[in-house]
Design goal:
This protein has 297 residues and is mainly alpha-helical. It folds into two domains: 97 residues, Tyrosine recombinase, N-terminal domain (DNA polymerase, domain 1), CATH 1.10.150; 174 residues, Intergrase catalytic core (hpI Integrase, Chain A, Orthogonal Bundle), CATH 1.10.443. Helix content is 52%, strand content 4%. It contains 13 helices and three strands; from the N terminus they run αααααααβββαααααα. It has a three-stranded antiparallel β-sheet. Helix 2 crosses helix 4, helix 6 packs antiparallel against helix 8 and helix 6 crosses helix 10.
């Protein structure tokens, strides 16, 4: 059932591999719970689970100090899974619809200042072989606002530097064109000259960013590189690849970029997701509105 569910998430809901993995992992945890001694309800079949069993399972998972976002995602996973079973006729009615999601406070992302971004870039040691690669990756993260997976999946055939764009494959394999600035283009061009000197695995010949063995870079390695470089630059914030995406969007909004354009560049389905980047710009907008209001004039 979980395998069929993963196919449904991929083909019908077009979720990313990471989202599918997370959703299915939640259902596997429920399956393990049903087989464990913690299950006092005596129900061991996913198809026969009732609301009491689901609540007991969630209570046990919450005892592991899950964040509210993780709790909310788990409940979303359960609702989605049992809705799928209902559509397939495996269950008559989804019991998971009765579950309540925790109230989540508005998410305020960690954002770097322009000076902090430049400090990180300037801290990269360009005398070591991977230096130019690391600088190019950070430049592209900040210049284009990419997700970690989008960066490591970037192909050489996705680069259209003459036109000032790159082609990005985002969630659900949806592609979009994103403008790329001159500093990022220059860094990538320098890196590509060095890239040619190393060994490259045949299947990764078109992959832009490679590890020392000539293979595609992993998400985990990208996170390690970014965190290490931020520590070298003495940045006192919890910096991840996504921090550059947040900073990219926030700085664009601060400087008057249209919110719809930022939404398209980030690949957000809904503009409501993009609106979190307006929080830092509220004072600037307040002054602008008051300046233009006829009564204030």
């Amino acid at each position: 059932m979980i395998n069929d569910y993963s196919v449904y998430l991929r083909l019908e809901r077009s979720l990313s591999d990471n989202s599918i993995k997370a959703y299915c992992s939640d259902i596997e945890k429920l399956s393990d719970f049903l087989e464990s001694s913690s299950n006092k309800e005596g129900i061991s079949d996913l198809r026969k689970v009732d609301i009491e069993t689901l609540n007991t399972f969630i209570t046990e998972e919450n005892s592991k100090e899950l964040s509210k976002r993780s709790q909310s995602r788990m409940i979303s996973s359960l609702k989605s899974f049992y809705l799928f079973l209902e559509m397939e006729g495996v269950v008559k009615q989804s019991q998971a619809e009765l579950l309540d999601s925790p109230r989540i406070n508005p998410y305020i992302p960690i954002v770097l200042s322009v000076a902090e971004v430049e400090k990180i870039l300037d801290s990269v040691d360009l005398s070591i072989p991977e230096g130019h690669r690391n600088r190019a990756m950070i430049e592209v993260l900040y210049s284009c606002g990419l997700r970690a997976t989008e960066l490591i999946s970037l192909k050489i055939s996705d680069l259209f530097f003459e036109d000032g764009f790159i082609r990005v494959t985002g969630k659900g394999s949806k592609q979009r064109l994103v403008p790329i600035g001159a500093p990022a283009i220059e860094s990538v061009k320098i890196y590509m000259k060095i890239r040619k000197m190393g060994s490259i695995q045949k299947k990764d010949e078109d992959t832009l960013f490679l590890n020392r063995r000539g293979r595609h870079l992993t998400r985990e390695m990208l996170f390690i590189i970014v965190k290490k470089q931020s520590a070298i630059a003495s940045i006192g914030k919890n910096v991840s690849p996504h921090t550059f995406r947040h900073s990219f969007a926030t700085h664009l909004v601060e400087n008057g970029a249209d919110l719809r354009a930022v939404q398209q560049m980030l690949g957000h389905e809904s503009i409501l997701t993009t609106e979190i980047y307006t929080h830092v710009n509220s004072e600037k907008w307040r002054k602008s509105i008051l300046k233009c209001h006829p009564r204030v004039k």
